[in-house]
Design brief:
The chain is mainly α. The chain has 2 helices and 2 strands, in the order H-E-E-H. It has a two-stranded antiparallel sheet with strand order 1-2. Helix 1 packs antiparallel against helix 2. The longest helix has 26 residues. The termini are close together.
Length: 75
C-alpha cells in the first residue's frame, strides 16, 4: 500500500470510528428525546429534535457508515 493510500485509509477509518461512536449513542438513547446543540447554545438544552428528523438522522448515519466501509474496501 502506498503512503498516500494509507493516509486516506487512516482518515476514512477515523471518520468511521466517529460515526460508530454516534451510532452507539443513538442506540443507547433510543428512548430519550434528543436535542440539537451548537456551541452558541452551550448553556441551554438546545432545540428538541422532532421524531421525523431523528429517524432521518439515524438513516444518514447508517448510510454514511456503509459508504465509508465501501470506500475502505476499495482501497
Amino acid at each position: 500500500m502506498e503512503k498516500n493510500t494509507a493516509e486516506i485509509a487512516r482518515d476514512l477509518l477515523a471518520e468511521l470510528e466517529r460515526l460508530e461512536d454516534i451510532k452507539t449513542h443513538i442506540e443507547a438513547e433510543s428512548h430519550h428525546w434528543w436535542s440539537f446543540l451548537t456551541p452558541d447554545m452551550y448553556s441551554k438544552d438546545g432545540l428538541r429534535m422532532p421524531d421525523i428528523l431523528r429517524t432521518e438522522f439515524v438513516k444518514a448515519v447508517d448510510n454514511s457508515m456503509e459508504r465509508l466501509n465501501k470506500l475502505i474496501e476499495e482501497l
